[in-house]
Write a structure and sequence with these properties.
The complex is a heterotrimer of chains A (316), B (30) and C (158). Chain A is an all-alpha fold. Chain A contains 14 helices and no strands. Chain B has 30 residues and is an all-alpha fold. The radius of gyration of chain B is 13 Å and the shape is rod-shaped. The N and C termini of chain B lie far apart (44 Å). With 158 residues, chain C is mostly helical. Chain C has one domain. Chain C is built from seven helices and no strands. Classes of the chains: A mainly alpha (316), B mainly alpha (30), C mainly alpha (158). At the A-B interface, helix 8 and helix 10 of A face helix 1 of B.
Chain lengths: 316, 30, 158
């Protein structure tokens, strides 16, 4: 199972997954089901989370199949350029979904976020579909409609280049010597913010600081989400600027794996019943403590494999 | 030296902007 | 610079810097990062609360972060020493390294001053936080951010 193979599996997530999530949301509105609405938000969040490895395995796939006969390098680039937009909108959708879940857990309605999700998810769907189509044209002759050939598409792209390309972002990062250290600094600062809040929230679940109810601690979670957002953006800049360092990097794969667990544990502590009902002075049930421990462990993993990128992996 | 100054400036400006966003969200959150 | 060279030539320093073992330099780098994330992260939690975020969360219980923050600080110092001796000739010649040490020192002092001036008040959560508390909180944030930037710049300015 190569990373290209994983990419072909995961790339169904942003397309099919988003469609399913939108369908669930629509059904929840028709049926006026609060529970179903919550589920659709959770699905949006998980889809956005899984889009991270979907994107990064794409970089690995690119390195693996570019320069082969029958493969269009121009289409690969067009696909990647489209993917960046789809990715950005996907993460925005996922971010609003998280915030809506957080607010609704606390008894709010999150109307603004719900509206944003309706709009953003539609845009994400369109962009994901476009990305997927371009991806197919890299090497799926049966989907080229009406006998167009790849050369014609390539010519069209040459005369009408997209607004922002992956290459441009990459050049931005490598041309300006201050950019990488600045973004790394931001990455570390946001890491401290994430870890501080994660420690506070999950140590409470594990039994420390019992004087606080979990809902009181829950109030801090958006700061962790903010840190997460900053690190996703700075992380994307690193990946786009120097894809070779990450695409095939074992340590980066482990970091992503830990990030998936970290994201899921964040969802659990944000939206699920178990943590929410841990009151002041109360001990959390065992399965809730397990998630608390897993959350801390997964973020330790993210930090460890992040730091090990040049050592276990081939970065720098 | 110049690199350090630019990096510090860029990071601090970004932190201030992000912090403002964070505070706005926090105020709005209750 | 002779002192730096002597340090770097010790058996310990050579093992850390040159053995290639994941338990050497890489491990100390990780522990240093973990220590930073813990002390700065928890301190930031306190600072944000003092500055008015998450109003439902009582500040007084956060005094129990201090033992964790001190343990994290010790881990950061020990790992930092290990990293230093492995590369003493470079690091001790970098101005930004001393800037970082100064900022960390100041941040930790601020943390301790906060322990006395803010957390020693038994009625801490019964009234609005004092301007002293808020000044300390803001100072703490700025110092930790500065220390983090300086720390990152060590890898780029030599």
């Amino acid at each position: 199972m190569t990373l290209s193979h994983v990419h072909l599996l995961l790339n169904h997530v942003p397309t099919v997954g988003t469609a399913i999530a939108i369908a669930l949301l629509v059904i929840s509105l028709i049926r006026r089901s609060d529970e179903l609405k919550r589920v659709s938000l959770e699905v949006f969040f998980v889809i956005a989370l899984l889009t991270l490895p979907a994107y990064t395995t794409g970089l690995a796939a690119q390195i693996q199949i570019q320069n082969r006969p029958g493969v269009s390098d121009v289409m690969i680039e067009a696909h990647e350029d489209a993917a960046i937009w789809a990715f950005a909108f996907m993460q925005l959708t996922g971010g609003f979904a998280w915030f809506a879940l957080w607010k609704r857990r606390r008894g709010g309605l999150a109307r603004g976020s719900m509206l944003a999700i309706v709009l953003l998810s539609a845009l994400t769907m369109m962009m994901s579909a476009r990305t997927a189509n371009l991806g197919g044209e890299i090497r799926h002759p049966e989907i080229l409609v009406g006998g167009e050939d790849v050369a014609a598409i390539e010519a069209a792209l040459a005369t009408n280049p997209p607004m922002i390309t992956a290459n441009q972002i990459g050049l931005l990062v490598t041309d300006r010597t201050w950019l990488w250290p600045a973004f790394e600094s931001l990455h570390f600062i946001a890491m401290c913010l994430i870890f501080g809040v994660v420690l506070i929230a999950n140590l409470r679940l594990l039994g420390l600081f019992k004087v606080w109810s979990f809902p009181a601690v829950h109030r801090l979670l958006p700061w962790a989400a903010l840190g997460f957002a900053i690190n996703m953006i700075t992380g994307m800049m690193f990946m786009t600027g120097s894809p070779g360092m990450y695409a095939d990097n074992t340590s980066f794969l482990y970091k992503l794996g830990c990030l998936m667990i970290a994201g899921l544990s964040l969802l659990y502590t944000t939206a699920f019943e178990g943590p929410w009902w841990v009151g002041a002075g109360q001990d959390a049930p065992r399965r809730v403590k397990l998630v608390g421990a897993a959350a801390i462990a997964s973020w330790l993993g993210v930090m460890y494999f992040g730091r090990m990128l040049p050592f276990i992996g081939n970065a720098f | 030296m110049q690199l350090a100054a630019i990096v510090t400036a860029v990071v601090l400006v970004t932190v201030v902007i992000v912090a403002a966003i964070g505070v706005a969200i926090d105020r709005h959150a209750d | 610079m002779e002192f730096a060279q002597t340090l770097q030539q010790t058996a310990l320093a050579k093992w850390i810097g040159e053995s290639g073992s994941l338990l050497g330099y890489p491990l100390f780098l990780f522990l240093h990062t973990l220590g930073l994330a813990t002390i700065a992260g928890l301190n930031a939690g306190i600072d944000l609360r003092i500055l008015g975020m998450a109003p439902a969360l009582k500040l007084a219980p956060m005094v129990r972060f201090y033992p964790v923050m001190w343990i994290a600080f010790v881990m950061t110092v020990v790992s930092g020493l290990a990293l230093l001796i492995a590369d003493a000739t470079t690091k001790l010649g970098q101005p930004v390294f001393y800037v970082k040490l100064l900022l960390v020192f100041a941040a930790v002092i601020t943390m301790q001053v906060m322990r006395r001036r803010v957390f020693d008040d038994p009625q801490l959560d019964d009234r609005p936080f004092t301007s002293t508390a808020r000044t300390l909180a803001m100072t703490s944030l700025v110092l930790w951010i500065g220390a983090t930037i300086a720390g990152r710049l060590i890898a780029y300015l030599y």
